[in-house]
Design brief:
eight-stranded mixed sheet, 2 domains, mainly beta
Amino acid sequence: MKRSTKNIILALVVIAGVIGVSVAAAIHNALAPPEQREDTSYFTPNENVAIKAFTFNGDIQVEPIEGSQIIVTYQAQAPYGYLKDIQTSAKETVNGSLTTIVAAASRPTNVDVEYHASLIIKLPKSATYNLTLTTSSGDVNIQTDKAREVGVITDNGDVTVSLPQSTQFQVTASVANGVISHQGITLDTSVDSATRLKGATATGESNLVMTLMSGYGDITIKYTAQRAEVT
């Protein structure tokens, strides 16, 4: 066999080996379970709190807790080898009696990978707070106890707000493709249709102002248990 022929055969064997390794790695990555990570931040706020939070391809959950700390947790998920691409942050600034917390999650937009980042916010029952929440795709579920302002935008997902019984509130809500329900709560309304709502309760405790928007999804406002007493 000529030397040139041997060299060609050797080169083909090497190329086949490289391709085989690459294919095996691709199959392994495709079959491997997604990687997951939790990024949690803790804050001890003053009495008044403003939270501005953004995430993508993930749900947002807000719930009251006992204790004095605000807990902000991002739950990130990505295919094997891509989890490091998801970046999260949560920072606070204090101005007198007001604590402002800004939380954000980001991922590359030029990579054809399915990234997810859900967000859980736990708030002390003793604090009063304003919430501004945005997700590009995901449900938003809020259990409020002493909120003053709530603003929600989701491009694709349901919005559910659960309020203590007898909470007084004003609401402006809209959906592009979905329905709005206020679960039998009596409202004085200037607009009340399946896709748009603007109104207020006549009586009750506190004076919550809500602006709720969903592109594709339903919006539900409901009363739950009596307001918890905080000592």
